[in-house]
Amino acid sequence: MSMQILVADDDSAIRTVVSQALMRAGFEVRVTSNIATLWRWIAAGEGDLVITDVLMPDGNAFDTLPKIKNSRPDLPVIVMSAQNTFMTAIKASEKGAYDYIPKPFDLTELVAIVRRALSEPKESRRQDAPDELHDSMPLVGRSPAMQDIYRALARMMQTDLTVTITGESGTGKELVARALHDYGRRRKGPFVAINMAAIPRELIESELFGHEKGAFTGAQARTSGRFEQAEGGTLFLDEIGDMPMEAQTRLLRVLQQGEYTVVGGRTPIATDVRIVAATNKDLRQLIARGLFREDLFYRLNVVPLRLPPLRERIEDLADLARHFFTEAEKQGLPRKVLSQGALDVMRRYPWPGNVRELENLIRRLSALYPQDEISAELVEHELSNDVAKTPGLDGDGGKPIDLSAAVERYLSDYFASFGDDLPPPGLHGRILREVEYPLIAAALAATRGNQVKAADLLGVNRNTLRKKIRDLDISVIRAIR
C-alpha cells in the first residue's frame, strides 16, 4: 500500500507540480487550498506526511502545527514558505516541523526529503516543546545562499553538535554563533566568546582553562577560565586557526574526554559546554603546513558551515542596507533611504569587507550627510575612499588586482612564512585546490546551482564538475525559478 501525502497550498500551480512530482515517485496525494480541510483530514487519521505552506487563506500553518503534533506526534510535517527569513526557518523547527523548504524549491530535493522523513523511525521525529520565540531578527537576507544557512541552523538548534563556521572576515560568523546559542537548547546558559588572535600565546591556556594561585608569575589568585564561565552554555572559539599548537593539544583532550585541568591544578574538572568554532582561514592548508592538528580539525568540524561573502548574496544588499539604516535610526541618527542609482553602485562594488564593510558605510552615510535620500554620487565618493584604504584593490574603480599578481604576492608571503625552510611537498596540488574551490563555488553561485550551466561556464564536462564538487566538498544551492 502506497504512502499518502497531504499537500496544502493556496497556489494551484504549486499544488499541481508538487502532486505530480510526488505521484511520479509512487505516492498517493491529496491536495487542498485551506487549513481547515487539511486539519479535518489529519484529525480523521488520514495521511502519512503533510506538506503545507505557512500562509494560507484561512490561517497560518504555524498556529496549526502544535495541534497536529499534539494529535498525531509521529506525523511528519514539511513547511513551505515564500517568506524566506531566518525566523521562518527557526519557527518551523521550534513548532515541530520535520523540515522547512523556502520557495522556490527543487522538486527532486522535495521528494528526497519526503522519502527521508517517511523512512526515519517515528521516535526520532518527536521534539520537545519549544520555549517562547524571541522577537529579534538576528540574520538578514532572503537569497538562496542564505536559505541554505537558515535551514542548516534550524536543524542544529535542538542538538549539541560541534559546529565550525568558516567565511571571510565580516561575513557575520559570531552573529551565526550567537543565533545557534540564542535559539538553541542551551539558550538559558551563558554565551562566552574568546578571540584566539587577540590573546598572547602564553596566556591562551590560562584564558581557556583558568589558573590556580601561583601557577605562574603574576598569578596572585585563582582565576576561572572560559570553559568554566561557559558551563551549561556555548563557548565560541573565534579565529581558531590562530590557536597555538600546545593549546590545540589541550583543547583536543577536552573534546575527547569531556574534562580539563586548570593551569597549575591537578584535579580534572568535568565540562558541559557546546563548542562553536570560527575561522577565516583554510584549516586544511594549516594542517598541511603543520600549524593545525588534523585530529582536532575532525573533532571541531562535525558540522561545517560556510558563510557566503556578500558578493555571493548581492541580492540581499537592499534588505541589509535597510536593516542598518533602521539600526542607525534607533541610535538617534537621521532616517535615510538609498536612491536606485545608489543601490546600483553598491551592487557593482566587490565588498572585500563583506557585511561589516556595508554596515560601516551605512553608518557613515547616516551620520555625515544631511540628505534624506542618499545618491549614487555620495555612495561612489565613500566607496572610493574605502578602495584607497583596502589592500588588494587597485584604487581606480575598485576592481581586484590582477589574479596573477595576487597569486604571486600570496606565494611570496607563503614562502616567507617558513623562513629558511621550504613548505611541505605537494605545493602544486594544494595551490590548485585552493584556486579551484572559490572558482567553482562562484560559478555555482552565479548559475544558482545549475550544474549544467556552471559546467558550460567553466568549460568542463558535467561529470568532471560533479566530481570536483564532491572532492572539494562544495555546497550547491539549488532552486527552480
Low-confidence stretches: 124-136, 395-399
Rounded average pLDDT: 84
Largest sheet: 5 strands, parallel
Helix content: 40-55%
What is the name of the CATH superfamily of the largest domain? P-loop containing nucleotide triphosphate hydrolases
Number of domains: 4
Main location: cytoplasm
Protein name: DNA-binding transcriptional regulator NtrC
Domain Response regulatory: 4-118
Organism: Aurantimonas manganoxydans (strain ATCC BAA-1229 / DSM 21871 / SI85-9A1)
Any descriptors?
about 475 residues; 20 helices; Rossmann fold; single chain; Helicase, Ruva Protein, domain 3; ATP-binding; 5-stranded parallel sheet; globular; 4 domains; alpha/beta; phosphorelay response regulator activity
Describe it.
It comes from Aurantimonas manganoxydans (strain ATCC BAA-1229 / DSM 21871 / SI85-9A1). One of its GO terms (molecular function) is ATP binding. It is found in: Cytoplasm. This is DNA-binding transcriptional regulator NtrC. One of its GO terms (biological process) is regulation of DNA-templated transcription. The strands form 5 sheets. Strands 2-1-3-6-7 form a 5-stranded parallel sheet, sandwiched between helices. Strands 9-10-13-8-14 form a 5-stranded parallel sheet. It is 46% helix and 12% strand. By secondary structure, it is an alpha/beta fold. 32% of the residues are buried. It has 4 domains: 143 residues, Rossmann fold (3-Layer(aba) Sandwich); 148 residues, P-loop containing nucleotide triphosphate hydrolases (Rossmann fold), CATH 3.40.50.300; 79 residues, Orthogonal Bundle (Helicase, Ruva Protein, domain 3); 64 residues, Orthogonal Bundle (Arc Repressor Mutant, subunit A). The protein contains 20 helices and 16 strands.
